[in-house]
Structures are given as C-alpha cells and as structure tokens.
Amino acid sequence: MRGPHNIFRLVRTGATLERNAAMADILEAVEAPRIARIAIRTLAWPFKWLGYRGDASLPPVARALTAMGPAYIKFGQILSTRPDVVGDALSMQLRLLQDQLPPFSRGRARETVAFELGRPADEVFSEFSEPVAAASIAQVHRAQLADSGRDVAVKVLRPGIERAFRRDIDAFYFAAGLVAKFLPGSRRLRPVEVIEHFEGVVLGELDLRLESASASEFADNTENDEGFSLPQVLWNHSSRRVMTMTWADGINAGDVAALRAAGHDMTGLSQRVIQLFLSHALRDGFFHADMHHGNLKIAPNGDIIAYDFGIMGHIDEYTRRVYAEILYGFIKRDYKRVAEVHFEAGYVPADRDVDEFARALRAVGEPIFGMDASRISMGKLLAYLFEVTERFGMETRTELILLQRTMVVVEGVARTLDERMNIWDAAKPVVERYIAESIGPKAVADDLAKTARVLARFGPRLPALAEEALIRLSQEQEEPEQPSRWWGPVWAVMGGAIGAAIVAFFTLF
What we know:
- By secondary structure, the chain is α+β, with helices and mostly antiparallel strands.
- It folds into 4 domains: 4-99 and 166-205, no CATH class; 105-157 and 207-247, Phosphorylase Kinase, domain 1 (2-Layer Sandwich), CATH 3.30.200.20; 248-439, no CATH class; 445-508, no CATH class.
- 59% of the residues lie in helices and 9% in strands.
- Strands 1-2-3-5 form a 4-stranded antiparallel β-sheet. Strands 4-9-8-6 form a 4-stranded mixed β-sheet. A two-stranded antiparallel ribbon has the order 7-10.
- It is globular and about 75 Å long.
C-alpha cells in the first residue's frame, strides 16, 4: 500500500503547498537543508496548476491543508497540539484551521442513521433537521426522539470518510518515509512516529462508540462538579457511525455580548473554566483536550456545558503528582523544589547539576511573576519550562505537550470571558487541594492500601516467588564477578510483604 502509487498524491500535495505559499514554512519546520529547499521548490513549481487553491483569509499552511480536505485538516489540527514537532510558529498557524466544511445532505445522514440503528430514521426521530455543524469527520443534526419527544443532537460520520482517511494516511506514511530518508535533519522529529500517532487518533475518532465511551466516562468523573454539565449519551440510539446525545441549550462561550446581556457572572465563569480544567486534569487524569469556544456553551442557569469528546487527554497518577508539584513550586516560587521534582521523576538526567537547573527555572519564572497579574499565562510558563528542560536533556512527553496546548486554549477562553482574570488566583486552590489530597499522609496510606490489595491477589504465590528469587540469588553468589539482578525482586517481595503487614495491622487495630 505504501509504494510508488502514492507519488501522484505526493506531487499534488506539494503543488498545493507551493500554490498556497506554504512550502517554505513546511521545509523550515522539518529543518530541510538549503539545497534541499531549493530543489524541492524548483520541482514543485511547474506543477502548481495541479494544486488546490485555499481560503486566502487563512495563513499559508492552514490555507493549503484546508484546500486538500478532511484528512489534511485533521492532520493539521493534531499537529497544532505538537509544537515540539512543528515549532511554535507553525503550531500557531495550524490552530487557525477552520473545521467548517460543506455539509453532506440530510438525506444521506438519514440513510446512515437507518442503516446503523437497524430501522427507518422516521421510526427513531420524529424530527431531523438540516446540519447545524459540519466538521472534517462528521456533522451534527438537531432531532427529536419519536418515542419521548426529547430533543437530541445526532452526530453522523461523513459518507466514505473511513476509506478516504485510510487512503490519505497511506500517502502520509509514504511522504514521512521519504522525509526521514532524504532530510536527515528531520529525523529528530520522528516523522513516521508522528504519522503513527495521527493514525491512532483518527481511527479512534472514526468509531463514534469510542467517543461515546469517552463522553460517558467524563460524565461519571464530573457528575458532582458544581456549575458543570455534559449532554447524556443515548446508547440505544448510537453506534459506530452515529452518536446521539441529549440536546444542550445555551449561549456559545465566545459570544461575550450575549452572555453579558443574559446577566451571567463573567468573572465567575472565567475562573470556573480554569478551575474545572485543572480539576479534571489533576483529580481525574482525564480531561477535555479541545476546550475551545466552539465546544463550550453557557446554560441559562450559568452551568458550563462541554461537548465534542473526540480529543481527550490522559495523564497517569504519578505524572499528575509530578505536574502538581511543579505547578505548586512555581506558585510558591520555590525553584529549587521544582528542580528537585524533575530529578526525582527522572525527567532530567541524573548527571546534570540540580542547582544550575534551578537557576534556569528561576529565569523562566521570575519574568512571568513580574508581569501584571492579568497577563500571567500558565500555558506560556509550561511552554518556557519545556524549552529549558529540553536543553537539560528531558525527553518530549506527549501527554504534557497536549496538556500545555489545552491550557493555552482554556486560558484564551477564560480571558475572553474576563480579560482581567488572574490565572494564578484561579489555579491556586485547585492545585493546593490536589497537593493536600495526593501528597500527604492520607495519600501514603492510600498507596500502601493499594499495594496490599495487589499483594493480596498474589498472596498464595508470594512464598514460591520469594523462594525462587532466593535460589537465583544464591546461585549468582557463587559467581561474584557478575552483579546480582535479583536483589530487586527479593526486596520487592520482602518490602511488599512488610508493607502489607503494616497496612493490615492498622486496618485491624
């Protein structure tokens, strides 16, 4: 599949980039040598007529990707979350990508609904509107359930979108292989791995059952969050290519004039957006990673309503604790502690100097804290932090890059609602609460309890595991020139058993 037959697609892609003046930005992003830039642009120029012309109101790369269709738009949107790959300048361009594509017909949508749900659309929905929103992968219709009269939103995949995406992903792999082979400077960007990441994200979005599952999990996590609500997934009316949710009435979060006219507390909304996002990221490790204005509404009662759950972020518990300590250290301006956390987590190689790293972190934090409170940006702080850690040898962590990108978007929403809002004042109580709950005596007790539960599952096997480890250890001691590899397992078994005994003692007595 990934062979020469993709050459024409590659030529058309290059022609479209050149026609929309985007080729230079792309070549700069992949750090192509000067001779390669000249050669590629010289080869692409005669074929400009094959390229598509994009929307002149967009910057060059966004314009070209929009002209090439859904797969390229989605690719650009995902790359906008990876400034570590494409650089800050190109990342900013890609964030402007428009996702409003011409809709497909209402009739085609009804045909998809009938096929997916196994009965005529009229039997399921008494009303089914023209499209109210059309994006790169799917479009949304407002409808009414025939049995209850309940208003719902019905998301339907574009006809043939799976086949189109697989065809374009095939071409992306072909191009990535050529880039990695002939542009050595691009190898640090791992172009093939970038396409693999893109493929994984898109294939997930092409199965609306997975988005429904994300929405359901997110709803379970946030059901007790005051001032926040989500539409409910209607599983009986959803499938792989159709997703039905309750309709959410409200004002778009970007319509500031309408929100003020409705009498909403703009400062309160602004702070709540920040606090909710941080709560979801730190408390749950599962957050909405596309919280721009278009995916948020404000309900008549003031609740913030989120929808469109195609892009969600995941952070494991250990990383959440590290991230919280880093944020808290910056809030307290304790740069030595922030540096120590990086070393303790293994983010920065142990052979680097912790005091030198702390001074570099101070150079990041102090200029930001010297700003007027209304101009402080946590997203910028994280971006500067990643620049410094990269200089000290920290490897890119995709989940933190996504978190930082989402933080920038959420801050933008918050400042739209109240341009004078203080990010740190809004964030501090959430971070402090998480620190108190996750990095204290209670957290230690919880960790020991979890360890005890795990050991309990292996309880009958612990004696045999300990005996095997001790036998291996005694055998290796007969060969002292070889360092033992079994002290780890021995200490793990012994330490785990001791920990379990301690937890059991305090639980029982």
